[in-house]
C-alpha cells in the first residue's frame, strides 16, 4: 500500500513539476519578449539628447544648436570669434 501511494504521489509531483516548468518557461519567454519589445521601441524613439545640428556660417563645422552662437539674422557660429569674423566680412 505504501509503495503504491508513494508512486501515486511521485506521479502527481512529476506532473506538478512539469506544469511548473511549463509555467516558468512561459514566464521567461514572456519576459524575453517584453524586454525585446522595449528594445525595439527604444530603437524607434529618437535618442535622448539628440538635437538639431547647425552649421557654423564662418567655418562650416557642425555643432549642436545649444552649443552654437546665433545672431538676429539666424546664422549660427561655433565660436564668438567666428561670429565676429563673419559679421566683419562683407
Ligand atoms: Zn566656426
Summarize the structure.
This protein is mainly alpha-helical and 90 residues long. The chain has helices at residues 2-44, 80-88; strands spanning 53-55, 62-64, 69-70, 76-77. It has two domains: 1-45; 53-88, no CATH class.
Plain-language structure description:
By secondary structure, the protein is mainly α. It has 2 domains: 45 residues; 36 residues, no CATH class. Helix content is 58%, strand content 11%. The chain has 2 helices and 4 strands. The strands form 2 sheets. The chain has a two-stranded antiparallel sheet. Strands 3-4 form a two-stranded antiparallel ribbon. The longest helix is centred in the N-terminal third of the chain and has 43 residues. The chain is rod-shaped, with a radius of gyration of 33 Å. 9% of the residues are buried. The mean pLDDT is 85. The structure holds zinc ion.
Query: Could you say which structural class the secondary elements and strand pairing correspond to?
Result: mainly alpha
Spell out which ligands are present.
zinc ion
Query: What is the molecular shape?
Result: rod-shaped
User: What's the total count of β strands?
Assistant: 4
How much of the sequence lies in strands comes to: 5-15%
Straight-line N-to-C gap: 107 Å
Amino acid at each position: 500500500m505504501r509503495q503504491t501511494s508513494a508512486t501515486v504521489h511521485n506521479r502527481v509531483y512529476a506532473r506538478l513539476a512539469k506544469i511548473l516548468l511549463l509555467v516558468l518557461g512561459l514566464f521567461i519567454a514572456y519576459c524575453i519578449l517584453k524586454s525585446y519589445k522595449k528594445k525595439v521601441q527604444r530603437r524607434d524613439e529618437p535618442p535622448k539628447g539628440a538635437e538639431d545640428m547647425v552649421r557654423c556660417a564662418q567655418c562650416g563645422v557642425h555643432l549642436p544648436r545649444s552649443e552654437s552662437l546665433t545672431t538676429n539674422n539666424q546664422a549660427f557660429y561655433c565660436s564668438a570669434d567666428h561670429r565676429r569674423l563673419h559679421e566683419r566680412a562683407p
